[in-house]
Specification:
Largest sheet of chain A: 2 strands, antiparallel
CATH topology of chain A: Formate dehydrogenase/DMSO reductase fold
Oligomer: heterotrimer
Strand order of the largest sheet of chain A: 1-3
CATH class of chain A: Mainly Alpha
Structural class of chain B: mainly alpha
Number of strands of chain B: 0
Distance between the termini of chain B: 24 Å
Number of strands of chain A: 3
Radius of gyration of chain A: 21 Å
Chains: A mainly alpha (400), B mainly alpha (192), C alpha+beta (245)
CATH architecture of chain A: Up-down Bundle
Distance between the termini of chain A: 6 Å
Number of helices of chain A: 14
Shape of chain A: globular
Helix content of chain A: 55-70%
Order of helices and strands of chain A: EHHHHHHHHHHHHEHEH
Strand content of chain A: under 5%
């Protein structure tokens, strides 16, 4: 195995500035959309008193969940001592921070009163899972930053394993916390289950790694750095396992729901008669987002880079669909106040709430992705995150 | 006039304190600054907008005027917690709490030429007249009523199409450097 | 301590309410003027010795929409100009409940149930969603950041989010864009010894009073006839209870 050599991406190039411009523009449009929403109020969005969390939350929670998942590669290298992943650990940590930042920006800008961030940062109700998450998110940023520092500052390399362990435990707690935002909501049929916490953890594995692979392959292609099959094969096999694991949790979730009369309704709604949610579930989440990627990753196309990239992109789309179903579908399904009864009111009791995403919401969500990619672009140019080469003779510990 | 005196006062006291602490160059800067202020003082009548504090209708405020200028945010914040979170609405003597925004508005509401109360989007509104000048955004009136209850243009079931509270943002006031010169000494002398 | 409102028509006993001693004067059928005799000492904090509650008799032939109208009027609701119907604030609504198999149907007013263990208070990250000592659940709009987590958590869909800039609010109910709001049990009226607006408009079908005082009318009624809570299975112990559901 040749010596590993990290190098910044050339920042003073047309390609770099193009990327900076594109991602900057996407971020800017997102910020503008947020300003538009805040200026007018949320009446310009598809959200209502029935569907109180909308598309921005789908993107925000996707990014936050993916953030902790992106750290996986580093964790495997530091905590589980797999040297093959060591060259990727820095990118993994940096991407985790960037994804979290993107997600938090969206979450924050969708608040009714984002100008009161200072209130959220000074007044805490420690019974609230949101409060726990405020600490989990800021703590995650801090601990991963320390972890990155131990990796990148040679004299402190000996602390990497400890910092990596800390970050690994923290990210598990973080995703558990994110899942619990929903899992603890006893009032709504779709959420009232502890299963959501581990399901979010495994979802983070899949979404985070898919995002990581896309960033990895794109940046190596864009900078003409060699990226060998060895590392890609390991990652894509892992990705397939995670996708299958998410599928497993989805099946358990719905079977559990269907078995109890108490929760049958919401699963029947998503699986059979939920209209757009049923379509999103079977076609996008299961078909395009799970089965097709598995086929692409493990089938005869398994060695094809384009197909691996496509599979990663599909997993991300499937993940967004899955969160759309969980977050918006879960709210659209009517809350049961009088079990067994038919209810109606001027406040839309007993009917499936309608929701259609508005343009500003989507732009804000995409803006969050833009912020993430902007941060990644700046970071890889500013610091030594990427190995100059990940060709097989460098990356494969068994190569001669 | 007190505003100009205040400028001189704070600068000269700063000068005294700094004389034996700071390096000569800093003292020199301070001296220069004080000269500039003296010049500014001479041309005060050219220094852009001045605050005109509107008259109030009540007999006397809960505190003397100069104290109200400094402490009204604290009073409002303190008493809103008492009232909303604890349910304390009166002083032991049965009077309104000092920081009752409702009472502020009742006394300080301003009427326009047509004898209608002016709203928060109007520069003549009591709170706006100062806050716009000082470029301090308040969000009280996003929720609180900006004119007395039951006043002539109260009609709960229809809104005011042209009222846009969100336009009251910092930066939209067009503050000049002179404005800041007028405001800054007063602000710094208030802080503990 | 209990006292009774003086009025001619003693058969309308549901008008009598708990520990607030008030004198009522009938000026027209269904319209009552209340004069506070000795409301709570407003210079002291609300006390947990009191727990305000309501008992709603759904078997009474009452037009519950009158309660909704009274609520809208009291709190100055309905002043949205841009919001869609599903975005507009409703503190109290009339829910029609029908049993599909038997065909039995009824309607009842649903508002914030003022739970003893309110999920909205638990989940609020800033403590804006709060329960006052006397059991009234409120939103402190000075702290609300508009995250809407309380709306996700409430099993009664009792909360609304203000989707646009509001003007012409009622002095006693400040409310504005970007904050969540809900029924506050007319806390300003209650503090002044008056009945909540919906109770006043209910023609006696809603009894308001102190659940902690066994001598209050609401407690006596509950002791005699019992009361039901919506989603009692969640064990939130709402302060709003029902008869006939």
């Amino acid at each position: 195995m040749k010596k590993l050599h990290f190098l910044e991406v050339e920042g003073n190039s047309r390609g770099f500035y193009t990327l900076l411009g594109v991602f900057g523009l996407i971020s800017l449009i997102g910020m503008f959309a947020a300003y538009y929403m805040e200026h007018h109020g949320h009446y310009v969005t598809g959200m209502s008193n029935q569907v109180v969390w909308g598309t921005p939350h789908v993107f925000a929670i996707f990014l936050i969940v993916a953030a902790s998942g992106a750290l996986n590669v580093a964790s495997i290298s530091s905590v589980f001592a797999k040297t093959a992943y060591k060259p990727l650990a820095r990118l993994s940590g940096m991407l985790a921070i960037a994804l979290l930042a993107g997600g938090l920006v969206v979450l924050l800008l969708d608040l009714g009163r984002p100008d009161r961030l200072i209130v959220a940062m000074t007044k805490f109700n420690f019974l609230s899972i949101f409060t726990w998450n405020i600490f989990l998110y800021t703590g995650f940023m801090g601990i991963v930053a320390v972890y990155l520092w131990t990796m990148m500052d040679r004299p402190y390399n000996k602390l990497t394993k400890k910092a990596g362990m800390g970050a690994f435990i923290w990210r598990l707690v973080l995703t558990t916390g994110t899942g619990s935002i929903f899992g603890f909501l006893i009032a709504r049929e779709a959420y009232d289950t502890a299963l959501l916490a581990p399901m979010f953890v495994i979802m983070s594995f899949a979404f985070g790694l898919a995002f990581f692979m896309l960033v990895l392959m794109a940046s190596y292609k864009y900078t003409d750095r060699p990226l060998g099959d060895y590392i890609i094969n390991r990652l894509k096999n892992l990705l397939g396992v995670f996708v299958a694991a998410v599928l497993y949790f989805v099946i358990v979730y719905h079977i559990t729901n269907l078995y109890s009369a108490d929760h049958q309704g919401v699963s029947a709604f998503i699986l059979a008669d939920g209209g757009i949610y049923t379509f999103l579930f079977w076609v996008v989440q299961i078909g395009l987002g799970s089965l097709l990627p598995l086929l692409l990753l493990y089938g005869p196309t398994g060695k094809n880079r384009t197909m691996i990239g496509l599979a990663s992109a599909l997993i991300i789309i499937g993940g967004l669909a899955q969160l759309y179903i969980i977050i918006i579908g879960g709210q659209a399904y009517p809350m049961v106040m009088f079990p067994g009864m038919e209810v109606s009111s001027s406040f839309y009791d007993g009917v499936v709430a309608s929701y259609s995403p508005s343009l500003p919401e989507v732009l804000l969500g995409v803006g969050g992705v833009g912020v993430t990619l902007l941060l990644v672009t700046v970071s890889v140019a500013a610091l030594k995150f990427l190995p100059a080469s990940l060709a097989d003779e460098v990356a494969d510990p068994h190569a001669k | 006039m007190w505003l100009q005196l205040n400028i001189n006062f704070s600068f000269s006291s700063l000068l005294k304190e700094s004389m034996h602490k700071l390096p000569l160059s800093v003292v020199g800067l301070a001296l220069m600054a004080s000269f500039t202020t003296v010049n500014a003082e001479v041309e005060q009548h050219d220094l852009g907008p001045r605050i005109e504090i509107p008259e109030s209708s009540g007999n006397s405020c809960v505190l003397p005027e100069d104290e109200m200028r400094r402490r009204h945010p604290d009073l409002l914040k303190h008493d809103r917690i008492l009232t909303l979170r604890e349910g304390i609405r009166e002083k032991t003597d049965g009077h309104n709490l000092d920081g009752s925004l409702k009472q502020c508005i009742n006394c300080h509401a301003i009427k326009d030429d047509n004898n209608n109360y002016v709203r928060i989007d109007n520069d003549r509104h009591f709170c706006v007249s100062c806050h716009k000048y000082a470029a301090v955004t308040i969000d009280c009136f996003q929720c609180h009523r900006d004119i007395p209850e039951g006043s002539s243009n109260f009609h709960a079931l229809s809104g005011h199409k042209n009222t846009d509270f969100t336009s009251i943002t910092p930066g939209s006031y067009g503050l000049t450097v002179q404005d800041m010169a007028n405001i800054a000494p007063e602000v710094s002398s208030d802080d503990k | 301590m209990t006292s009774k409102i003086e009025k001619e028509d003693l058969s309308r006993r549901n008008f009598i309410f708990g520990s607030i001693a008030a004198a009522g004067l009938t000026v027209a059928p269904g319209v009552m003027l209340y004069q506070t005799a000795n409301a709570r000492d407003l210079s002291k904090a609300a006390s947990s010795k009191v727990r305000w509650g309501m008992l709603i008799d759904t078997s009474r032939d009452v037009d519950w929409n009158k309660c909704v109208e009274a609520c809208v009027k009291e709190h100055g609701l309905g002043n949205e100009e841009h919001s869609r119907p599903d975005q507009r604030t409703q503190y109290i609504r009339v829910v029609e409940v029908k049993n599909k198999s038997t065909g039995y149907s009824m309607s009842l007013p649903v508002m914030c149930q003022h739970c003893e263990q309110p999920p909205c208070v638990d989940v609020c990250p800033t403590g804006a969603s709060m329960k006052r000592e006397d059991g009234i659940v409120l939103v402190d709009r000075h702290r609300c950041i508009g995250c809407r987590y309380c709306m996700m958590a409430c099993p009664y869909k009792a909360r609304s989010f203000v989707h646009e800039t509001l003007t012409d609010q009622s002095t006693t109910t400040p409310r504005g864009k970007g904050c969540v709001e809900s029924c506050n049990m007319c806390v300003n009226r209650v503090d002044n010894g008056q009945l909540p607006a919906c109770v006043e408009a209910s023609e006696g079908a809603i009894v308001f009073g102190n659940l902690n005082d066994p001598e209050s009318d609401i407690s006596k009624l509950l002791a005699k006839h019992g009361g039901k809570q919506i989603r009692a299975d969640l064990k939130l112990n709402p302060g709003v209870q029902y008869q006939g559901i």
